[in-house]
Amino acid sequence: QVQLQESGPGLVKPSETLSLTCAVSGYSISSGYYWGWIRQPPGKGLEWIGSIYHSGSTYYNPSLKSRVTISVDTSKNQFSLKLSSVTAADTAVYYCASGELERVPDAFDIWGQGTMVTVSS
Amino acid sequence: DIQMTQSPSTLSASVGDRVTITCRASQSISSWLAWYQQKPGKAPKLLIYKASSLESGVPSRFSGSGSGTEFTLTISSLQPDDFATYYCQHQGTFGPGTKVDIK
Question: Is residue A121 predicted with pLDDT exceeding 90?
């Protein structure tokens, strides 16, 4: 049973870089899953940030692409999100999620509990 | 870019009602559509994938249908635990959500 747990600072200053980590348990991150980040501003809907596949291929939301990096650390069985030059508009609950590539190639079947990140000075 | 819309944005219903939520894509997406349920303060939960495949552990009162550009999520008999917000998703795009609340 795959489990995901987000971690990282809950407060980030404007213009700085938001960095979050998602620890994966119950499965090897280098196997047949894909891993993603989704965020949800307070009171609003879900926004996909990007995904990374076990092959290493990454895909990003075009609206965020210039500021986003998603990477995998196989030695720690975790993946990470970096979002640069943040503004108040980046304040949101950030979720990490995963999908079993062969079974649900286009959906996220496992989600972390989410972590609130506030951008403020 | 493909845009996803949902209707209605809010739906008021009673326990036992049959509920239908519609999701439309701006161009054909074959059957590549998922549905999620989200309750306040909780992460989304996958209900349906590939438009009509029921995720393991999800009650059979939930069903999905459609292909191409129009899709529906149906709850055959609404239960108290079903009052939540529902989102459709195609690849990197989520619909705006449909809130199902108590009539």
Answer: yes
Is A106 within 8 Å of B87 when comparing Cβ atoms? no
Question: Do B43 and A114 contact (CB within 8 A), yes or no?
Answer: yes
Instruction: Give mean pLDDT, residues B30-56.
Output: 97
Integer Cα distance of A7 and B97 in angstroms: 27
Nearest residue to A49 via CA among A87, A90, A88: A90
Nearest to B34 among A61, A107, A112 (CB): A107
In a 3-state reduction of DSSP, which class is residue A89? helix
Cα–Cα distance, B44 to A96 (Å, whole number): 11
Q: Which residues of B touch A95 (CB under 8 A)?
A: 43-44
Which residues make beta-bridge pairs with A51? A36, A59
- Best of B2, B46, B86, B88 to disrupt the A interface (most A CBs within 10 Å) is B46
Mark yes or no for CB contact B94/A47 under 8 Å.
yes
Q: What is the mean pLDDT of residues A11-39?
A: 94
Two tokens at A23? 């620890």
Residue A73 to residues A1, A23, A78, A105: CA-CA distances in angstroms?
20, 10, 5, 22
The answer to whether B101 and B83 have CB atoms below 8 angstroms apart is yes
Report whether A119 contacts A88 (CB < 8 A).
yes
The yes-or-no verdict on residue B95 having pLDDT over 90 is: yes
A51 touches chain B (CB under 8 A): yes
From A41, A15, A22, select the one nearest A116 (Cα to Cα): A41
